[in-house]
Amino acid sequence: MTGRSTIDSTISPAGNSSAVDVRGVSRIFAARRGPGVTALDDVSLVVAPGEFVSLIGPSGCGKSTLLRLIADLDTPTAGSVEVFGKPARQARIDQDYGIAFQQAGLLPWRTVAGNIELPLELHGVGKAARRARAAELIELVGLADFAGHYPDQLSGGMQQRVAIARSLAESPSLLLMDEPFGALDEMTRERMQNELVRICAETEAAVVFVTHSIPEAVFLSNRVVVMSPRPGRIRSVVTVGLGDRSRRGEDLREDEGFFQALSQVRDLLRGDEAASTPQGAQGVETR
Ligand SMILES: Nc1ncnc2c1ncn2[C@@H]1O[C@H](COP(=O)(O)OP(=O)(O)OP(=O)(O)O)[C@@H](O)[C@H]1O
Ligand SMILES: [Mg+2]
Q1: What Å distances lie between residue 272 and 56, 85, 170, CA to CA?
Q2: Global confidence as pTM
C-alpha cells in the first residue's frame, strides 16, 4: 500500500480539543471459568469535533464494546475515555451525545413526535419548546407526513429515521451510532446515508459510526478505523480524502477516489486473514 496511501499513523487529527479521546483502553470480560475475553486491547483513538469516524472490522472485534465505553454504558478495564475533555460519565450526565443503535428502540405507544420529544421531556424541556424542536427534526428526516403515526405504522427505515431524529433532539455535538442502518435494504440504506451526511453537515456533530459495510464507511467518513479480530485492536486508520460533507452526494459513489478508498479499506480488512503479519502488511499501527 504505497503511493496514493492515505493511511494515517497518528492517533489524532490536527487540533487540540477533541470530541472523543480514548487512551490505552482495554476491556476484559471476566469468564466464569478460565481466562476472560479480551474484547479490546490497548486501543487509542482521538475524534475531532465535527469529524465523522467509522469503526469497521470482523464480528466480535470489539466495535460495540468501544462505542459502549465512549457512551459510558460500560467501564474500561484499563485506560481512559474522555468526551469533550470530560470523563465519559460526566459527558453522559451532561447529555453531550446522542445514541442510535441497530434497533430503533422506539416506544410503541408513542407517536413519531412523542418518541422524538422523549429525551427533551426527560430533561425538563417545556412543552412548546419540545413541540417546536420535534417538528424541526421531523422535517429534517423527511417524516413531516408521519408525525402522528405510531412506530408499527412505519417501515423499518422510517423507524430508523425517527431514532436518528431522537438522537439529534438535544443537538448533541457527538453522535454514537452502532450499525444504525444494518437492517435496511440497499436503496433505503443509501438514502439514509445521504440524509445522515446532510444532517451532520447541518449540525456539525462529530460521529463515531460502527458498520460492517465498506462503502458505507467510506461514503460517510473522514476517517475509517480498521480493527483486527480479538483481542480487538486498531489495525490502521484510513483518511478518506473525498472532501467535506457538504460535497458528498450521489456523485461521490461514482468517484474514482471513492473506489480507491474502498479497495484500500478492503485490503486492510483482508490483512486480518494474513495472520503471519501481526501489525498488518501495511505496517501501520495506530497507537
Ligand atoms: N457483556 C459481555 N460479557 C461478556 N463478553 C462480552 C460482552 N460484551 C461483549 N463481549 C465479548 O467481547 C467481544 C467483542 O464484542 P463486541 O460486541 O464489541 O463485538 P463487535 O465488534 O461489535 O461485533 P459485531 O460486529 O458482531 O457486532 C466478543 O468476543 C464478545 O463475546
Ligand atoms: Mg457490534
Answers
A1: 12, 33, 39
A2: 0.84
Identity at 80, one-letter amino acid code: S
DSSP 282: T
143 Cα to the center of ligand 2, angstroms:
28
Ranges of each domain in the chain: 7-96+172-273, 106-171
Instruction: Find out whether 21 and 214 touch, Cβ atoms under 8 Å.
Output: no
Max mean pLDDT among 24-38, 187-201, 236-250, 265-279 falls in: 24-38
* Greater model confidence, 279 or 166: 166
Q: Could you tell me the distance, in angstroms and rounded to a whole number, from the CA of residue 140 to the centre of ligand 1?
A: 33
Ligand 1 pocket test, candidate residues 22, 37, 56, 181, most atoms within 8 A of CB = 37
**Is the per-residue pLDDT at 197 higher than 80?**
yes
Distance of CA 65 from the midpoint of ligand 1 (Å): 6
Query: Measuring CA to CA, which residue among 91, 110, 31, 53 is closest to residue 239?
Result: 53
Q: Decide whether any atom of ligand 1 lies within 6 Å of the 62 Cβ.
A: yes
End-to-end CA distance of the chain: 19
Q: Please provide the CATH number assigned to the domain covering 7-96+172-273.
A: 3.40.50.300
Mutate to test the pocket of ligand 1, among 61, 68, 176, 209 (most ligand atoms within 8 A of CB): 61
| Mean pLDDT score of the chain | 84
Helix (H, G, I), strand (E, B) or coil at 202: helix
- Region 181-203: mean pLDDT is 82
